[in-house]
Specification:
globular, alpha/beta, 8-stranded mixed sheet
């Protein structure tokens, strides 16, 4: 890597989309960002923002057949800003990979063996890993000489002790089929737990944090001294908190009941629990802003959905307080966690005996900055910490290739 190679392109390849950011690692600044969506559909959309020049967002709609065509379109947009993929200043491409199993515990330079292992994990991440693989292979074809680095959503959670990671099922069956709790949103939990420690003026190893990543997908983690010791998502992202369209925790026998009584097959139940449950299943909306608007208008179904959502949140705050023994902070992050003041207030209300409280005035302030929203007297700090998964991926990628 040359001395002037200080840029990292971060790619997050979904089944029909590619999110990307180009960052300068000298100061972590963003040079460009964008999204390609509806890949493979009749009309695709590319939105690109040239942040380095302060130019206006550029959007275009036209059919983009596959990920290869999508990444070529991204490369063209970057080149138009003088930031092309052929630039000698590009040090590496960092890829978000959802599932790394137990093998990948840290960012990894991608070679054939790494790709094979990511493919082996497809059965436990059928919706995510195939798209991640496609993005990696396409980027390799565009820049075969450039280091490609995989940063895994599961890696941060590999520090969980066995008693937290194991399900209480037959050990031989579990091991044969890789059935255990892996956890997800790891880059966000890593970033937010570290930033929370900074907000408290302490080193990460001196702080115990409960991180609540509340977006359309939602997860909680218990982080002791910078290491994850428990997290709410499991073998898949379905376990845990109530989410936008996912049920979260549920009696496993519900699956057998639906098969026997409702005549539903495995695929139908999969769709029900992953896409037609959670908030959207409870009240028909998965946008917290809309749910709060309906509650303000007296909608009882929306109010019940909100109460179920908060009840599950409180259960995990209480459980992770017990797991950690000492809690220094609870940090809210992601779309709902960062923006929905009523969610933060309701989640903490009634937990005063655990040392938690929220200052109404501080909680009502909208800001892009990390901040405390608890009163000075509170034994446990309550924080709002905007997550930055792309910066975390870029930092991990650049640190690896620099070394």
């Amino acid at each position: 890597m040359t001395a002037n190679a200080t840029r990292v392109l971060v790619l997050n390849s979904g089944s029909s989309s590619v999110k990307y950011q180009l960052l300068d690692m000298r100061d972590g600044s963003r040079l460009a960002a964008g999204l390609v969506e509806r890949i493979g559909e009749q009309t695709s959309r590319l939105a690109h923002t040239p942040l380095a020049t302060g130019g206006d967002k550029r959007e275009r709609e036209a059919r983009i057949a596959d990920h290869e065509e999508a990444l070529k379109a991204v490369a063209d947009e970057l080149a138009a800003d003088g930031l092309g993929l052929d630039s000698p200043e590009l040090a590496a491409i960092g890829h978000r990979v959802v599932h790394g199993g137990l093998k990948f515990t840290e960012p990894t330079v991608i070679d054939d063996a790494v790709l094979e292992e990511i493919e082996r994990l497809v059965p436990v991440a059928p919706l995510h890993n195939p798209a991640n693989i496609t993005g990696i292979r396409t980027a390799q074809a565009l820049r075969p000489d450039l280091p490609q680095v995989a940063v895994f959503d599961t890696a941060f959670h590999t520090t969980m002790p066995e008693h937290a990671a194991r399900y209480a099922i037959d050990v031989e069956t579990a091991d044969a089929h890789r059935i255990r709790r892996y956890g997800f949103h790891g880059t966000s939990h890593a970033y937010v737990s570290r930033k929370t420690a900074e907000l408290l003026g302490k080193a990460p190893e001196d702080v115990n944090v409960i991180v609540l990543h509340l977006g359309n997908g939602a997860s909680a983690s218990a982080v002791a001294g910078g290491r994850c010791v428990d997290t709410s998502m499991g073998l898949t992202p379905l376990e845990g908190l109530v989410m936008g369209t996912r049920s979260g925790d549920i009696d496993p026998a519900v699956v057998f009941h639906l098969k026997r009584v409702a005549g539903m097959d495995a695929d139908e139940i999969d769709v029900l629990l992953n896409k037609k449950s959670g908030l959207i299943g409870l009240c028909g909306d998965n946008d917290m802003r809309e749910i709060r608007r309906r509650i303000d208008e007296g909608d009882q179904q929306a109010a019940l959905a909100f109460d179920i959502y908060i009840h599950r949140l409180k259960k995990y705050i209480g459980a992770y307080s017990a797991v950690l023994g000492r809690v220094d902070a609870v940090a809210f992050t992601a779309g709902v966690g960062e923006n929905a003041a009523p969610v933060r207030e309701a989640a903490v209300k009634g937990l005063e005996e655990l040392g938690l409280a929220v200052d109404a005035d501080l909680n009502s302030v909208r800001s892009d900055e990390a901040r405390l929203i608890s009163p000075e007297y509170a034994r446990v700090a309550v924080a709002v910490v905007p997550t930055d998964e792309e910066l975390e991926i870029a930092n991990q990628t650049y640190a690896l290739v620099s070394n």
